[in-house]
Write a structure and sequence with these properties.
The structure is a homodimer. In chain A, strand 5 and strand 6 form a beta hairpin. In chain A, the strands form two sheets. Chain A has a five-stranded parallel beta sheet with strand order 2-7-1-8-9, with helices on both faces. Helix content of chain A is 38%, strand content 20%. The first copy, chain A, has one domain: P-loop containing nucleotide triphosphate hydrolases (Rossmann fold). The first copy, chain A, is an alpha/beta fold. The longest helix of chain A is centred in the C-terminal third of the chain and has 15 residues. In chain A, helix 1 crosses helix 7. At the A-B interface, helix 5, strand 9 and helix 7 of A face helix 5, strand 9 and helix 7 of B.
Amino acid sequence: MHDDLRERQRQPLLIVISGPSGVGKDSVLQNMRARDLPFHFVVTATTRPKRPDEVDGIDYFFISQDEFVKMIEQDELLEHAIVYGDNKGIPKQQVRQALASGKDVVMRIDVQGAETIRNICPEALLIFLSTRTEEELVKRLKTRRTETPESLELRLATVRHEMESVEQFDYYVINADNQLDATVDTIQAIIHAELQRTHPRQVVL
Amino acid sequence: MHDDLRERQRQPLLIVISGPSGVGKDSVLQNMRARDLPFHFVVTATTRPKRPDEVDGIDYFFISQDEFVKMIEQDELLEHAIVYGDNKGIPKQQVRQALASGKDVVMRIDVQGAETIRNICPEALLIFLSTRTEEELVKRLKTRRTETPESLELRLATVRHEMESVEQFDYYVINADNQLDATVDTIQAIIHAELQRTHPRQVVL
């Protein structure tokens, strides 16, 4: 439009939702998907067992250890890590295709993985999810029947380490108890605001 | 709270709503004030005549030329300018007191004034309001009965000049025709997002 006051350079965003184990990343993603948002939600590949409320191909691609190793060998993963004994990886081609189609891309990933994405793509939009207190996080981890006292101690030690990485994230969002909708409202506000930036992020991947 | 996962350094924001004459700054501010927002809205001093729907002490302090000169002489204005023949100025003490009380401060100001605020306070949050096209802006200026063909030409020349300053603003928000509520929703989203930043703005004034 030649008479626009200013040409907008609309660039798709690469939105990374991260934070400690137990903070509610999966719940946030499920809530976001349930809203009518024009984003591509990355389906992560994982070797961890499917939880009862999860759907293969939507929440995750649940694959075998052998399939996972093959993906690594064929360089099909943008990033991968062993998270508490389970492999997780971000399919590279899926993210590139979504960005190429002009869609904003949303992925959830552990804190170390988010740092890797920051290195691969400095203009990624990094959101750190947190509880307000350590006590809240412990409570959430305990409600997961899978936690033994040993694994709980391990996770908490990891959390304290992960908190040192907060400074490398763009935003720090509290996912308070029973406030999931408010958390996702905040994430939507962040994305909406980012799209009005005078200097849009230049995502190259 | 000693067991917080991260100490938040909540800093009040200095939010500057700017943009060309006719874009709707006053309407945006009136709409924001009508919402239940916990901001301090700066009352600008001006020598321009009161419009019928405006209230002295709320929309502006409507003062005489003599009073305005006295404020300048006593260094009571953070910034002042002659905008199309009328003097406008931001009372310094008012802004400082509001920030000191911990409130986020919202002010509207012309584009040149916003640049001055940027120089005084590099961490101010600057929002540039715009119409989508020049045609929309002309239409709005024409509906103001005050506009003569000469003043319209002058204003448009100024707008073209002001567009060169957009890069110095943080956000560029389109205030489209009949979309005032959406515009203010966007401004609220920006402020909400800014409050979640890992590295909050450090406003020093």
